[in-house]
Amino acid sequence: MNELNPVMLAKGVFINNAWRPAASGRVIDVYAPAEGRVFAQIAAGTAADVDAAVKAARHAAEEGAWSRLTATERGRLLSRLAVAIADHAEELAKLEARDTGKPMKQARADIAAASRYFEFYGGAADKLHGETIPFLAGYFVPTERVPHGVTAHIIPWNYPAQMFGRTIGPALAVGNATVIKPAEDACLTPLRLAELAAEVGFPDGAINIVPGLGEEAGAALSAHPDIDFIAFTGSPEVGILIQTAAAKNHIGCTLELGGKSPHVVFADADLDAAIPVIANTVVQNAGQTCSAGSRLLVERKVYEEVVSRLNARFASLRAGSPEMDLDLGPVINAKQKERVESFFAKASADDVGVVAEGLVAEGVPAGGFYVPPRVYGPVPRSHILATQEVFGPVLAVLPFDDEADAIALANGTEFGLMAGIWSTNASRAIRVARKVKAGQVYVNAYGAGGGIELPFGGMKKSGHGREKGFEALYEFSTLKTLIIKHD
Ligand code: ADP
């Protein structure tokens, strides 16, 4: 993890609380995005490892020690893991920052959030109740929430530690046994967290983790005939493959597939409060956040003022390495850098102007995948900058004329993950918030990815199903109705 030890070898695949080499014997190089060079290798898990992991999970779910724990005991284990994560916060934050390139302060916040997921679901585990249903005379009809059994979790590289907590926290709380396929670009913290979970006492098979390529380990996991549910966060293209695989096995899935989330700024908005939040929601994690606020819709009357404030704000923003701990880090890899730069090139070719810009800091390591944060405006409504997810620190500003226009524009993409409404007119803010099609709508605030307590997920092509909050306990369980005749 330092210059003297440039390449660390992750320990393999984690099955039944033990490390083993991948059956393929192959490894995958992992790049440090801040330096643009290989710093670690992970095991290339394939179908054989996935099969072993699913078998371990099946045993844990149905016969092993995990299956015999009460809800309270499961909750205690989750709470213990939350404490262990907090106790290892600095080690984990450094690992996360090296693997993803994000600034240390962001990595620290992410590890705190990962701990908080286990704290929240630890407390929630024994509070998921059934109901009793009035029925015919002589019958007693209770319902019970039961786990699916074996849940598969395919997660992305942008927030590896948080995603681990977000997806398995609720699944474990209700008693599923889990198999996780983390992203090949960044997965070292999930591997370490699985190990910590074993140390705090999670029984064999409750948490199994198979790193590997998406088209190998990911495809094998999503198509495995003995999984009962899939939770996926990633691209819309792979989302289609996941839902198709789930359909072939007749199982359910949740898909969280990103967005092009709007901020809607009315002329009466408190711009002092709004502008720093708006800038941050597209710069956080170098814009590589599904719920980034990447479209800024502004009432025409205040367009010039908003743009000038953004200009001042972005002028001070700097991209740098984790250790420099600036406003944003690099993007994840060379491909992602090329993607962001292709949007820059398209904007330039189409004469869409840069109205605000930050810089890549001087002295960043050569070879790192840095891009400057940029704001473009006015962006034509049909331009790809206004319609497609960039997954980089790029904000598109579009003016609107009135409330109806604002709503149409806010709803004018294929996505529907989040939105922020900025207005001091409470009636209007509520009216607009209720008409915008998105899973979460903030009023005079915006929490890109924030709020473990808050149900989160998409409408339209942002996906379906809800994670986070108490709602995730329903998603990761199913309802059983007992119909008991007693007369
Ligand atoms: P991104 O473009 O952000 O990398 P992906 O959708 O490609 O998003 O990746 C999200 C997760 O899905 C990663 O863990 C990746 O390995 C996995 N993945 C990629 N391709 C497949 C596939 N064909 N089947 C299952 N999982 C996949």
UniProtKB/TrEMBL annotation:
InterPro entries membership: Ald_DH/histidinol_DH, Ald_DH_C, Ald_DH_CS_CYS, Ald_DH_CS_GLU, Ald_DH_N, Aldehyde_DH_dom
GO molecular function annotation: oxidoreductase activity, acting on the aldehyde or oxo group of donors, NAD or NADP as acceptor
- At the top level, the lineage of the source is Bacteria
Q: Record keywords: Oxidoreductase included?
A: yes
The keyword Oxidoreductase is assigned to this record: yes
The active site lies at: E256
Name the residues that span the membrane. Answer: none
Q: Which residues form the Aldehyde dehydrogenase domain?
A: 19-481
Protein keywords: Oxidoreductase
- Matching Pfam families, A to Z? Aldedh (PF00171)
In the record, the note on similarity to other proteins reads: Belongs to the aldehyde dehydrogenase family.
Protein name from the UniProt record = Aldehyde dehydrogenase
The record lists the lineage as: Bacteria, Pseudomonadati, Pseudomonadota, Alphaproteobacteria, Hyphomicrobiales
